Amino acid sequence: MSQDALSDLPRCVRLRGALFFHVDCAGRWVSEAPDAKVLTPLIMPEAQHLMDYHVMLKGACWAGVTTAEPPIRLSEGDVVVFPRGDAHVMSSVPGLRAEPDVDFLARRPPQLPFLLRQEGGRFLEAGDWSPNDGS
After folding, report:
1. Which of 33, 53, 77, 95 could join 81 via S-S bond, C-beta 3.0 to 4.6 A?
2. Pick from 96, 127, 114, 79: which is nearest to 32 by CA?
3. What is the pTM of this model?
4. How much is the pLDDT for 128?
5. Residues spanned by the domain of 80
6. Residue 14 falls within a domain, yes or no?
């Protein structure tokens, strides 16, 4: 192994699937993700571990685990990783909370990779938008 642990990571970890959420938000907004123990049986029942991450393409927001730790501010180009799959919240201002919405996964388990878009607090079906629509 090299001295650069990040370069060795792909050789040590076998990635088997992905679930992508394309989130467009404006004004006051919040999106909350449940603990991986809730998501894993719905999207990859055979997986031993689920890890969440978010990439800020535009704008800024606040992100943090749903425990007592304060959130951190993310700006364009930042990445936040929740390696243990902790329940977490992303919001326009610190302190906003919401109920995690995973009902759509229970109704129709996705084929991976799966793209989902959230606008104004509601999830849009894949047929309602295009990843190349300029967003």
Report:
1. 53
2. 96
3. 0.71
4. 44
5. 29-108
6. no
